C-alpha cells in the first residue's frame, strides 16, 4: 500500500475516533475529590447530611439546580464547579441554586 493510500485509509478512522471521544460522557465527580468534599457533594441527594448542611431541603438536586448543564431527563451532566466531570442529576452540593 502506498503511503498516500494508507493516509486515505487512516483519515476516516481518526475522524471516527475523534467523534467517539467528543461524545464520551465525562467521568463522574469523585465525592472524595477536594472540591467535592469542600462543597459537600453527595451523589444521592436523599443521603445529604442534614445536620451538616441545614440549607438542604428535600427535592433539591443537581437536576433542578441553576448550575446544572445536563439536559432534562439525563442521568448526569456537566456542572461548572466540577470542570471536566459530570454530576449525577440526583446528586446535590452546598452550592445548589434554584433553577429559574
Ligand atoms: Fe449539582 Fe448545582 Fe452543586 Fe453543581 S452546583 S454539583 S449542579 S447542586
Describe how the helices and strands are arranged.
Layout lengths: L2 H21 L3 E2 L5 H6 L36 E3 L6 E4 L12
Parallel strand pairs: 1-3
Antiparallel strand pairs: 2-3
Bound molecules: iron/sulfur cluster.
Care to count the β-strands? 3
Q: Helicity level, as a percent range?
A: 25-40%
For the report, how would you describe the main beta sheet?
3 strands, mixed
CATH architecture of the domain at 26-88: Irregular
- Which outline best applies? globular
Number of helices: 2
Q: Look at the structure and give the CATH class of the domain at 26-88.
A: Few Secondary Structures
Strand order of the largest sheet: 1-3-2
Give me the oligomer status.
Answer: single chain
The CA-CA distance between the termini, in Å, is 59 Å
Which structural class do you get from the secondary structure elements?
alpha+beta
The CATH superfamily name of the domain at 26-88 is High potential iron-sulphur protein
CATH fold topology of the domain at 26-88? High-Potential Iron-Sulfur Protein, Chain A
Low-confidence stretches: 13-21
Order of helices and strands, N to C? HEHEE
Q: What small molecules accompany the polymer chains?
A: iron/sulfur cluster
Amino acid at each position: 500500500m502506498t503511503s498516500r493510500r494508507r493516509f486515505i485509509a487512516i483519515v476516516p478512522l481518526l475522524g471516527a475516533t475523534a467523534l467517539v471521544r467528543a461524545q464520551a460522557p465525562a467521568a463522574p465527580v469523585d465525592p472524595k475529590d477536594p472540591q467535592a468534599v469542600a462543597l459537600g457533594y453527595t451523589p444521592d441527594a436523599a443521603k445529604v447530611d442534614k445536620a451538616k448542611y441545614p440549607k438542604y431541603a428535600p427535592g433539591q438536586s443537581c437536576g433542578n439546580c441553576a448550575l446544572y448543564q445536563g439536559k432534562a431527563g439525563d442521568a448526569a451532566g456537566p456542572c461548572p464547579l466540577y470542570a471536566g466531570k459530570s454530576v449525577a442529576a440526583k446528586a446535590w452540593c452546598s452550592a445548589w441554586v434554584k433553577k429559574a
